[in-house]
Amino acid sequence: MKMRLDRWLAALGEGSRSEVKDWIRGGAAAVNGRVIRDPACSFDPDRDVLSLRGKALDGRVTRHVMMHKPAGVLTAARDPKQRTVMDLLPEVYRGIGCMPVGRLDKDTTGLLVFTCDGELNHRLLSPGRHVDKRYRATVRGRLEEKDAEAFAAGLDLGDFTARGAELRILRAEAETSLAEMVITEGKFHQVKRMFDAVGHEVLQLHRCSFGPLELDPALEEGMWRELTDAELEALRKAAGMTEREDA
Ligand code: URA
User: Range of 166's domain?
Assistant: First the structure.
């Protein structure tokens, strides 16, 4: 992927767009050791070595993140009024096109994955891919075995029929119950609508895992970290992106 030199340096957080333009014109930037004075010059951050004032920069375009999404923030690239998950990441991630994979409702907490890789993002969300997503839900009322059976059979939600889903009841009390469920689809409000369909309002929803990725227990709400190489590899595998396909 080719990038404009000034845009990339600004996205990396080295300075504002106008500052980096001035620096480039002044001869501060080099690509593969050759000074480049044209801010609009394009280069390939995956292959070319970029340096600023003689210091090599980490020019990766591909960044992949897991976040413990807190309640109260929107899953959106930006919003004129409300705080979004992108506001919890450093600006550079927005600059290089890092986007959430799917969405969690504003009041849902838990694992949200971000990637700059549009192909990976698209594949993970593709309806035919059936990536497992595990949620923990606190619901109103007592959950019973018949609810688990209804989930397993698949639920008619009006505009679509949810595929059979595993529901594991962890605590069942008259006031509230706690359960874990795994779904392979990701329709709008799907978990809440499935519980609604069996007469239980969701009071709290938390995503514990996404495909092969488990939310890192060291991440408190609002915290994030980059995926490890092994996690990224597992995610790419879940998306059907094998080494051979990529080559
Ligand atoms: N299903 C929902 O209803 N809400 C979410 O945030 C995620 C899945």
Answer: 133-210
